Amino acid sequence: MTRSPNFVINETTYRRFMTNSSSRKDTGATNHAQVVVIGMGLSLNDLTARHLDIIRRADILIGGKRHLACFKDHHGIQKEITRDIPELTDFIGQHFKTHQIVVLASGDPLLFGIGSIIVDALGPDHVEIYPNISSVSAAFSRIKEPWHDARVVSMHGKTSECSLLNAVKESPLVAVLTDPVRNPAWIAALLLRHKIDGWMSALIKQVDICVLEQLGMPSEKISWHSLEEVVGKSFSEPNIVVLKRTSVSPSLAGLHLGMPDDAYDHENGLITKPEIRAISLAKLKLQAHHVLWDLGAGSGSIGIEASLLMPQGIIVSIEKHPDRIRNIECNRLRHGVTNMDIRQAVLPDGLDGLPAPDRIFIGGGGRTLETIIRSAARYLKPDGVIVLNTVLMDNLTTAMTTLKELGFSTDTVQIQVSRSKDMPWSQRFEAQNPVWIISGIIKP
Question: 378 Cβ partners below 8 Å, 6+ apart?
């Protein structure tokens, strides 16, 4: 008899379970249409009589090791939640119509919890959710802070730092769900690295960190620290972190679409002009989670302002000139952009190994524009968009012809901007170079 090692079961219970399973399948006498997901809150004390009755009647009880330990004497099958989530949802899908399944979750099952995974797997009609006190709400109640405007970030099992850095940049109060690797010391070290080397030095003067250990347990502990005090320090698991900005520079909210040229370091006027930049970003049709390639990035202004529209996304800025790479670095730090990857390469080289793009912006290209378009288009995701800017008539023709040959539908606009210029007793308008903005959209 072979069973998955994440079952907690004895022989008598196993035989009864298999007998009941066979009987139910044969007779159809029982049809459990729903899986019940119960939030445990902080401890057993947060479970109501209704919760406990549902748990008592479960044929199969699923939960983390810590939660299952609270019900060692339960009569049914116990299955431990591991990292193999597909195996878990397959198991639930096979048994939920013939057996009453209860899943024990931490806090509120729909706040970065197992609840949404089960709903996605089975459909909302087959899942019943019982929320409870979350570690986030408990944390803010302990420190007596209202949290209706706070940001909540889960670093549990995550590898990207961008969501956390963006939250600290945008909100004075951030709750962070940790894991054993991305723990309070890791969070403090990350923020200190950016405070010393990057945008935090210019934008945020101080961040205090509160570590709340083992909430709801007899060993519960709450402590406030500076970032420096937390680096290298160990805290009891599980824990949650609250970050509080105590002093913020007014320049924090300064970045917006169509920033003036002097908001960027750039080389001899080699920068996409504000009005052209705003229209180009509109043509890119960016979404929050997108990956954008900015090819021939120049000063990086397109990618920097794109970050406002794609806070959960990734911007890859590629530029061949070392001086302009330094401009991009300075501008990224100056405006606190945390999700930009800067690469030096001579296009079309340097594209292998990058995250596949949803959107591509090409700000130059010169004589190699056709080669760049053809090379970059191979990596574009379905429903992708390419946008190009050019002031050269030959490149206008090259761009439109190449995109059509590659199966894109194209749209082209010419933008002519004139700026007001002071005169001794009035103003006049001074014309800027006309710019063509070419959009290529993959045909359905």
Answer: none
